[in-house]
Amino acid sequence: xxxxxxxxxxxxxxxxxxxxxxxxxxxxxxxxxxxxxxxxxxxxxxxxxxxxxxxxxxxxxxxxxxxxxxxxxxxxxxxxxxxxxxxxxxxxxxxxxxxxxxxxxxxxxxxxxxxxxxxxxxxxxxxxxxxxxxxxxxxxxxxxxxxxxxxxxxxxxxxxxxxxxxxxxxxxxxxxxxxxxxxxxxxxxxxxxxxxxxxxxxxxxxxxxxxxxxxxxxxxxxxxxxxxxxxxxxxxxxxxxxxxxxxxxxxxxxxxxxxxxxxxxxxxxxxxxxxxxxxxxxxxxxxxx
Length: 289
Prior knowledge:
By secondary structure, the protein is of the alpha/beta class. Helix content is 42%, strand content 17%. It has helices at residues 28-36, 45-54, 69-81, 102-110, 123-131, 148-158, 174-185, 209-218, 246-255, 258-269, 273-288; strands at 13-16, 39-42, 61-63, 86-89, 115-118, 138-143, 164-169, 190-195, 203-208, 227-231. The strands form two sheets. It has a five-stranded parallel sheet with strand order 3-2-4-1-5, sandwiched between helices. Strands 6-7-10-8-9 form a five-stranded mixed sheet.
């Protein structure tokens, strides 16, 4: 081992990020951990096997997939409690982010086993960094529902959130997903499509949802490879005139007829009667529906 090799600690779980495409994004620390671990818990041992072979790493592997994660987590924690080092990887990127891994991490925490993250590539942070939206907060949603009706229902709940929103999407669903986004969120909502990030045919395209849908529909190559969509935050909704008096009007309307509620609100606030009356009508109508 070279002099600056990162040395692992026994009885520990290392959560190791692997490249999402370009092997140059593999960190030396991650490689050190994979070489020194007693076992690597891999989402798909065939995929990880090719990566390990490229770097001459012969550490044994076990499969840790969604269908066996709970049972395998208990076995791996027992091995760590006996003194072994376990490294966990997904097929690409950072484990437990729309990939298996969270159950093993939670089981390790519950058993008092140290959990050590080895950061690196993530499609989430890669896409956000390339989107260029300035909203200070972002929501990672992961994969939407595969069926259109369920997907539209999810999008309706997200429509007005003042955050950037990040979705992962499979290539065979990207076109219909964009169509649903246009329908629910509107054609002018700004977004960025990131496809095959860090790979040979990487695409990063920014535009309105309508423009992105047309772009993908016109080029079948854009319907191949893993996709990340970043939506700009929803525009702030204009405030209704008089809404600053809602905390006064609402309890009055709950107990009094509209005219009496407005008259009392005018006495208390000295606000213009017409303003309070129009706002009271809006609140009453909203409450009736």
